[in-house]
């Protein structure tokens, strides 16, 4: 039986983030983690060695569609 603990934790953390996007590294052999992140909307945007001697990790991005407080989206024709 799935309990959704990871999803609830993820949603709780994102509720506190005032950003346009989230980027994370995940070891590609962590199949359950990769599958969860993808099902939550993350997409792979690159590879990284997060520390010296580390194996290659996938870099995943989640677009949140919000802007940090005090910023506004530039539109064509606006200064």
The helix-and-strand class reads alpha+beta
Main beta sheet strand tally, sense and closure: 3 strands, antiparallel
State the distance separating the first and last CA atoms: 53 Å
Number of strands: 3
Count of discrete alpha- or pi-helical segments spanning 4 or more residues: 2
* Global morphology: globular
N-to-C SSE string, H for helix and E for strand: HEHEE
* Helix fraction bin: 25-40%
Strand portion, in percent?
A: 15-25%
* Rounded mean pLDDT score: 85
How much is the radius of gyration in Å?
16 Å
Unreliable stretches? 72-79
What order do the strands of the largest sheet run in, or round the barrel if closed? 1-3-2
What key attributes describe this structure?
2 helices, globular, 3-stranded antiparallel β-sheet, alpha+beta, disordered C terminus, single chain, 79 residues, 3 strands
Could you characterize the architecture of this molecule?
- The protein contains two helices and three strands.
- It is α+β, with helices and mostly antiparallel strands.
- It has a three-stranded antiparallel beta sheet with strand order 1-3-2, covered by helices on one side.
- The protein is globular, with a radius of gyration of 16 Å.
- The termini are far apart.
- The C terminus is likely disordered.
Please specify the SSE layout and strand pairing:
Layout: H1 5-15, E1 21-26, H2 31-39, E2 43-48, E3 57-63
Antiparallel strand pairs: 1-3, 2-3
